[in-house]
Amino acid sequence: MSASQEAEHPGLLKFSSAVFYAGSSFLITVVNKTVLTSFRFPSYMCLGIGQMITTIVVLYAAKMNKTVQFQDFDRTILLKIFPLPLLYVGNHITGLASTKKLSLPMFTVLRKFTILMTMILEAYVLRKTFPKRLVYSVVAIVLGAMFAASADLAFDVEGYTFILLNDAFTAASSVYTKKKLGTEGLGKYGVLFYNALIIVIPTLLASAFTGDLHQAITFEDWVKATFIFCFLMSCVMGFVLMYSIVLCSHYNSALTTTVVGAIKNVAVAYVGIFVGGDYLFSWTNFLGLTICMSGGLVYSYLTFNKTSSESEEGTPEQLKIHITQDSTGKCSAN
Length: 334
Known about the structure:
Elements: H1 3-6, H2 11-38, H3 44-64, H4 76-81, H5 84-101, H6 104-110, H7 113-125, E1 130-131, H8 132-149, H9 157-180, H10 187-210, H11 212-217, H12 225-251, H13 254-274, H14 283-304, H15 306-313, E2 318-319, E3 323-325, E4 331-333
Antiparallel strand pairs: 1-2, 3-4
């Protein structure tokens, strides 16, 4: 996919969709953290199910009212949308689990690895190339994240495992969402609706089988209006977030969508230092966090100004990643 193809949409739409995604991502992180940590809701899986059901209900109602249009369900849908449902549920579950296990600042720092993973996947799946200065800024972001994480005084193996899996699922989901948006008959709303529809029942069954659903049903705070409000807000924001991701991916590249998450992380990380009560301060962590966030801002600036810079300075030197496959089926990069 060339840069010219990504620049077809007006700059205002590209920027507005990016801001919409950043705001949605910030709000749902705070709301989910409140539900899972402050109220100690025991089931991140059931919270994800609530978000999926909200997505299905809202989009089906909109389709019935002819507010939105997408293809009716038939046997071709599964082939068109695969593997997005698997990536979607993986992203949902690992994201909610890591939100529960980690402090907000560490959550946002380790999420930076998504940028590197997205860049690699775009090179492999979409055959894209990147200017060297963008590659260097990605390296700076990752190094800053590693520096900050090295001083994590609340190290949690399970939490770190979930967040790295979430990075991988998010990167794959972003790249394949961009790829599937061009599929005939699906579009933005079809991708959202059928993703949720296909996986909600298996996820519900898995929740019941593991006892997760029982813990959620018997949770004692269901009688509290504040908890119910926060839970419903999380369900609604789950739909809004998924819509904002698809919208941003539609108007921008998958990598740009990931970079916007880095911009959002600036606000989330520093707010988390003062709000939430689970951040253990250390200078190593704080400086690494600052380096990481600064790198994210520089990368974001380069990304959103890429088109104008190239028109003034000519095409920048590209770093090409070639994916080859040998006779044994093993892939290698050179």
